[in-house]
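Exercise (ungraded).
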Amino acid sequence: KNEVEQSPQNLTAQEGEFITINCSYSVGISALHWLQQHPGGGIVSLFMLSSGKKKHGRLIATINIQEKHSSLHITASHPRDSAVYICAVIDDMRFGAGTRLTVKP
Amino acid sequence: NAGVTQTPKFQVLKTGQSMTLQCAQDMNHEYMSWYRQDPGMGLRLIHYSVGAGITDQGEVPNGYNVSRSTTEDFPLRLLSAAPSQTSVYFCASTSGNTIYFGEGSWLTVV
């Protein structure tokens, strides 16, 4: 079974700060997802990564397959980025516990 | 195209009652799954289906049943609700490496 670990569990930042959320997994995978869950519950997929790096606006996701590690970065954070961010290994449907991000104005 | 539709949004049950959480998708995806989300824990897989007529257990299947009579629908049944089943439930539909979630169902068992 793949163990998926995320850190930190909680993160508070001031508006404009650079944010990094980390995810590690124990077994080799074909792809990893970063998900975003806003208060009220809805979960959406931000990125699907199998190698390298992807960028959508202020969000950047990277993955190192050899080290079994992925990071989600948010540049110039904004209060609307406040949410829970979850990494997920879709191969065997295992999820990290999530990182609760709060961005203060 | 509604994506994944999950009902009800909120439900309060008494211990021992049964109920069904409904999940439907209109994307013709073969793979569907149910999860529960508890504080401090990641989403945990309850049951999943790789196509109509095929279901299998996930990580936490006890106390839940599923069926998949059509590609579109994947209901989750609680046979005899227990307080330990108080949780938020999510249905998801997967195609290749893309996953879509329902809006979630908040279930409280008293």
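Further reading is listed at the end of the chapter. For now, observe: Chain A has a mean pLDDT of 92. The two ends of chain A are 41 Å apart (CA to CA).
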